[in-house]
Amino acid sequence: MSLSFLDLPIVLAPMGGASTLELVAAVSNAGGFGILPCAYSTPEQITTQVSQLRRATRRPFGVNLFVESRPSVVDAHDVARAHDRLRAYREELGIVHTPQPAVPPDHYRGQIDAVLKARPDVFTFTFGIPDRDTLTRFRDLGIFTIGTATTVDEAVALADAGVDGLFAQGSEAGAHRGTFLAPVEASLIGTLALVPQVVDATHLPVFAAGGIGDGRAVAAVLALGAVAAAIGTSFLLAAESGIAVAYRNALRSKRSTDTVLTRAFSGRTARGMANRLTQELRDPDDIAPYPFQNAITRDIRTAAGEQGRSDFLSLWAGQAAKLAKEAPAADIVAELMQEAQARAECVTETLLASSSLLGRKNRQYELRKDPIRAIVFRRPST
Amino acid sequence: MSLSFLDLPIVLAPMGGASTLELVAAVSNAGGFGILPCAYSTPEQITTQVSQLRRATRRPFGVNLFVESRPSVVDAHDVARAHDRLRAYREELGIVHTPQPAVPPDHYRGQIDAVLKARPDVFTFTFGIPDRDTLTRFRDLGIFTIGTATTVDEAVALADAGVDGLFAQGSEAGAHRGTFLAPVEASLIGTLALVPQVVDATHLPVFAAGGIGDGRAVAAVLALGAVAAAIGTSFLLAAESGIAVAYRNALRSKRSTDTVLTRAFSGRTARGMANRLTQELRDPDDIAPYPFQNAITRDIRTAAGEQGRSDFLSLWAGQAAKLAKEAPAADIVAELMQEAQARAECVTETLLASSSLLGRKNRQYELRKDPIRAIVFRRPST
Fold first, then answer.
1. Which one of A304, B21, B311, B339 is most buried, counting C-beta atoms within 10 A?
2. Residues 6+ apart with CB under 8 A from B200
3. Is residue B4 assigned to a domain?
């Protein structure tokens, strides 16, 4: 598979609830690569959204789904208890506490079929590995597949399954951890350490994700061997972003540097700004497994957004959230590229300069630049 | 203060128990900047070691101390319980379980005086901020001071105290977390996210630490705005490294990718390879505060090293430990520089080529992979 969908090494990470069609189209139109988050969409919505996106951009884009990771057995009492634990919040928000917990949709197969039918350039997925038949169907249609790895073991498992590329999601990343093999706590590897090891272990195109706040980090992850930087949080303040005003205000504030890992909102561990819900919903017994927790907190998150209350919103953000800027997405893409280029040139000059400095100051080694590109250390002839 | 001590942007992070005088001298002699770990040395040892180091290199080097962080009140029962918790391990190792726990030395003031008298080019410190008078004494002697920050708040506090430079220690880093303001769990920020924010918040020279396994990451942290890469783990397999054989073997094995944060060895949180002690000593009630835990586990660590048993050794390692190579330190420095330079040039070319696409919307572009792994973006010839 070729990387012909990738012009600039800038990918808009799929952000459910934040990545509007306008944002995805704007990033793709600016030369980046937009990915439409479809994990929370019905099959019908996927069909409609991809069709709308095609009218908004003639450039390539991707679609993201969560691989089905519903537990095979769910204790209804656990879900009911988690639902009841939210009663006080509903009262505070003035919304109805239904007797029965909301039930998450069970439409993964339909989603897959809808994506295959919609034929985006790229299919990306999170939380695991689709079964062999599913991956084969994408391959047969020439759709480039990208899985999400948070450890080298996950990267190797995905490579073995035949994916075409990998997101290497470092511990800095905002929103859901893609972890699917070891426990999340044992799978928190910084992007700087993760990316080179995933490159070495798989030799696949790696899209670095996590902590990429501006062009400096874009240059950095390319130096690590990534083919592109996957950026979420730094597009959250884009003009086209769909986040609630309270979320936007939190991102603009000093709070943005205080992120935590929480299962409170969806039942799966995700990184976001600390707020009342992340502080008060910590006991595992209070939280239903994914996707049940996600279903039962939806009414609360919706009401909180409408009422401008950030204390009950999932305020997903990565550890470089402070670096997010408010601008049209196209300007953000352009600035990322300009800054990355300036930094890369600066580093190249610095390394050249320090090499020649060494040649003068230190008599033990002479350093020269060879005609190709390597720096060669050699002992002086004397 | 000038950075005249820094020729190549490669710093040997201070590694107590691993950084021999030979290793520090070798890195400095190769054009890098060696830092001698003195946290566990007596004032007399500091005097002797610095004097020996001066004979081993005519190039600049630094010295590191832990800022005094002994709790003002220590419950003797807590220490005794932690000591007794180790009885079974001593039996297993065949060493004496003393009736009284070992007492950590209380010689911080003497260490400071010894470092001032030894006058290294650079004084680096960890675990907090020395008092104002102490920092003034270093400043008056023209000794460059570098503090250690794991968060932006710590970086700002150190800058306010008047340090000349900062280690920005990302969550990937091996060995002790330098954290001194918020709890460690709330201070685990990936290097990729931390460095640019520390640069922005302080405008001081930043030495990036954590997860820098090879030249790719050296180029990356320079792109992030660091003046140099501080590297520990990737010097652990250097010929001059002083680690025990069992530790060296663990680093060479697949175990090296499995690091955990533990307080088992010193009472302070540090990152190392998982082993029996990190697995079995997890209950906070079993662990005395630093430096008491460090004192009471010393005989166990020493015996384990002598007996070639990695299960009771502190196997400090960062998250990029897999990338460590066995070679003389000078060769490691040279290879770091060569790889960093090659990567920086590659990224510069990539970004230059792709930035020509900026602004050219709705055009199809062609992407190909060139023979040396660089991704080259170019417009179609038509």
1. A304
2. none
3. no
Residue B371 and residue B247 in one domain: no
Instruction: Look at A223 and B219 and tell me if their CB atoms are within 8 Å.
Output: yes
CB contact under 8 A, B192 and A186: no
Mean pLDDT of B190-207: 98
| CB proximity A77 to B under 8 Å | no
* In a shared domain, residues B96 and B194: yes
Q: Which of residues 37-66 of A touch B (CB under 8 A)?
A: 57-59
Tens digits of residue pLDDT in B254-271: 999 999 999 999 999 999
**Bridge-partner residues for A122, per DSSP?**
A62, A144
Same domain, B130 and B207: yes
**Alpha carbon of A77: minimum distance to chain B alpha carbons (Å):** 31
Mean pLDDT of B62-91: 94
**What mean pLDDT is reported for chain B?**
92
Residue A302 phi/psi, 5-degree rounding, is -65, -45
Is the Cβ–Cβ distance between B93 and B312 less than 8 Å? yes
The mean per-residue pLDDT over the stretch B286-308 comes to 96
Q: What distance in Å separates the CA atoms of residue A261 and residue A272, rounded to the nearest whole number?
A: 7
Cβ <8 Å between B189 and A196: no
Q: Please answer whether residues A312 and A194 qualify as being in contact, where contact means their C-beta atoms are separated by less than 8 angstroms.
A: no
Residues of B in contact with A355 (CB under 8 A): 8, 337, 341
Whether residue A87 lies inside any domain: the answer is: yes
What is the pTM (predicted TM-score) of this model?
A: 0.93
Q: Is B284 helix (H, G, I), strand (E, B) or coil?
A: helix
Q: Residue A328: which of A60, A15, A20, A36 has the closest Cα?
A: A20
Q: For B251-280, give the DSSP string.
A: HHSGGGG-EEEE-TTTSS-EEEE--HHHHH
Give the residue carrying structure tokens 């609830």: A17
Whether the CB-CB separation of B14 and B35 falls below 8 Å is answered with yes
Q: Considering the domain boundaries, does residue A368 fall inside one?
A: no
Q: Which of B347, B354, B355, B356 to mutate to test the interface with A (most CBs of A within 10 A)?
A: B347
Cα–Cα distance, B363 to A60 (Å, whole number): 10
User: The domain containing residue B190 runs over which residues?
Assistant: 10-329
The answer to whether residues B356 and B322 belong to one domain is no
pLDDT per position as a tens digit, A177-199: 999 999 999 999 999 999 999 99
Whose tokens are 């290097």? That residue is: B191
Residues B145 and B227 both lie in one domain: yes
DSSP state of B288: P
Q: In which residue ranges of chain A is pLDDT below 50?
A: 360-382
Q: Inspect the interface and report whether the beta carbons of A351 and B9 lie closer than 8 Å.
A: yes
Contact B218, B340 (CB under 8 A): yes
Q: How many structural domains does chain A have?
A: 1
Same-domain check for residues B277 and B348: no
User: Residue A170 carries which side chain, given as an amino acid letter?
Assistant: G
Residue A278's CB is within 10 A of a number of other CB atoms, namely 23
Q: Is B318's CB within 8 Å of A196's CB?
A: no
What is the distance between the alpha carbons of residues A43 and B172, in angstroms, rounded to a whole number?
A: 40
Q: Kindly state whether A356 is in contact with chain B, defined as any CB-CB distance less than 8 angstroms.
A: no
Pick the residue from chain B with its C-alpha nearest to A224: B216
**Domain containing A166 — which CATH number?**
3.20.20.70
